[in-house]
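Contributing: when you submit paired examples, paste them exactly as shown. First protein:
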Amino acid sequence: MNAERPRLPGLHPGRYAWRHLDRVGAAQLWEELTDWVDWLRTTYQLGSRIPGCWYRHPSVREELTALMAAHYAAYYCDCESPDLPTEEPIAWHTQWLWPTVERLTRNSDFSGCRPENCRFTTQPQPTLGGLADYIAADLNSRDGRDPQTR
C-alpha cells in the first residue's frame, strides 16, 4: 500500500485521514476515537452491532472516524450564537448515525468475533495482472493536448 500523500496542489490530508497520519497524529486520533466510540456504544447500546473488537477492523475504524467527524460538525460550533437552535443534531442521527450503524452491521465481518476473541484478519486484495500495461496503453491512446485548451 502506498502511504505517500497524493499530489493535489493546495490540498492536504485532514486530521482524520488515517492513511496519512504520523505517529503523533495517529496517537491523538486513537485516543479521541476510542473515547468517542466508547461513548457511542454506551449511549446507544450498540455493543451487539459494534462489538468491542471494532478497532481491529480497518474499514470499521474508518467509518467510525467519519461518523465522529460528522458528530463534531453537528454538535460543535464556532459561531457567535451558540444558543441558536439548529437541526444539525437530528440530521446527524437520521443521515449519519443510523445509516452508518446499518451499513456496519450489513458490511462488516463481525461473524467470527466473540466478546473475548476477534477472528478478523486482513485478506490480500490482489489486482488482476497487467495493470501497468493497461495504464500504459490507455495513456498511449490519448493525445498530448492539455484538456483545458481543447
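Second protein:
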Amino acid sequence: MTTPQPTEKAPESPHRRPGASWWQAGSTGVVAAVAANLLLWGAGHLVGASMAHPDRTGSIVDVAVGDVVLATAVPFTAGFCAAVALSLLWRGFLRTAQITGSALALATIAGSLSLDTDTATRAVLALMHLALVPAVWLSLEAVRRRTLS
C-alpha cells in the first residue's frame, strides 16, 4: 500500500502584484464609504438625531438616504479619479492625494458642526465626514502599492 504524497503548492503567478487596480480600489472605497455613512445615518435615527438642518434659504431640509449616497459617492469618486489621473504624471502624487483627501474630509467637519440643528445631528454628520478618511487613505494606498511594485 502506498502512502499518499503531499501535494506541492503551486507557485504563485509571477505577474501577481500587491495592491489593487485603480477601478477595484476606487469602487471598493466608494462602496465602503457609502456603507459606513448609511450605517451612521441609521444610527443617528436610533439615537434620536433629527437628521434635519436649515439650508441656505432658511428652510429645513431632511437628510435622506439619497442625499447621503450622493454627498458621499460624488466627491469621493471625483477626488479619487483626479488623484489617479494625476498619479500618471507623477507616481508620488498618490501619497500627496492621501494626505490632501484626508485633510479635506477633516476640514469639512467644521461645516457640519456649525449647522443650526440638534447636537446629535451635528455629531452624526461630523462622523460621516470623518468616515471618509480611512476610505480615502486605504483606497489610494491600494493603488499606490500596485503602482510602486
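If you have annotations for the second protein, write them as plain sentences, like these:
The CA atoms of residues 106 and 130 lie 6 Å apart.
The chain is about 65% helix and 5% strand.
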